[in-house]
Amino acid sequence: MKNILKISKALVFALMFPLFLNSELPAECTNQRGMDRIINNPNNYFNRNISVAGPVERFLDENEGGPGFVIKSAEGKDFFVTGGNIVTDNEGNTLWQIKKDINTTDAFGEPIIALVVIKLYPKDYIAIEGSIAKHEKLPFAMSIAQIETFKPEYTLKVDANKNFNISISMPIHPNYDWVLSKMQSYFYCNGKAKLIDTEMVPPTSGLIGSTNKNFIFKAGRSGFSSLKFDNLDYSDKDRPKRINSKSYLVLIE
């Protein structure tokens, strides 16, 4: 009788363990190189939360399983993302877009409640948070939970565990300054880059009345980081006013 009870308990544990494992799957942060693990064996990643970053190769039409788009992996394979819509803008350019509700706070703690349209063109870079799911026409698909887009000129590739710089030009003025925003990124891999110092560097052009603010970061392990900078007007010391902002995607190899 005792042996039967032991066997029954073991069977219950064996059945429950996979369910527990699936419910507790850890989030994963990856970039182009890490996408190949998912592409080569998507069954290991179904229902798992993933953060991915890379350049958009092309859009998916409805016949291919779209709307959506493809990010090329390091091995040149297709990583599929679905959602949004494929549209044509006023200039005749084809683009992918998605409408997103913003319900968060800005760098000063003020609430932001708005509906924005995120636009994406081929060769733009993108950072996404979502989950891997089964798809009728595709080997797998990533559904979108959070998303940011970046132009190639606002994308950096850096080495893991090394220092790197982001330099922003600014006028020499007592009330204006660029700062790293407190609201950096929504993604699981937030914290892949750490600010360690800032410095003022004269512009190489020798332009009078301007300078460069150099932000020095330490990269973490392979993955990516989304960094947002605000240009603040401190004329009112108690309530600085944001007059501009820049967002960079840092791919850590």
SSE inventory with pairings:
Layout: H1 2-23, E1 28-30, H2 32-40, E2 49-60, E3 68-72, E4 78-82, E5 85-88, E6 94-105, E7 111-120, E8 125-133, E9 141-150, E10 155-158, E11 163-171, E12 176-180, E13 193-201, E14 210-219, E15 223-233, E16 241-252
Parallel strand pairs: 1-2, 4-9, 10-16
Antiparallel strand pairs: 2-3, 2-8, 3-4, 5-6, 6-7, 8-9, 11-14, 12-15, 13-14, 15-16
> Approximately what portion of the residues adopt beta-strand conformation?
over 45%
Q: What's the overall average pLDDT, rounded?
A: 82
Count all strands and give the number. Answer: 16
Distance between the termini: 58 Å
User: What oligomeric assembly is this protein in?
Assistant: single chain
Rounded to the nearest angstrom, the radius of gyration is 22 Å
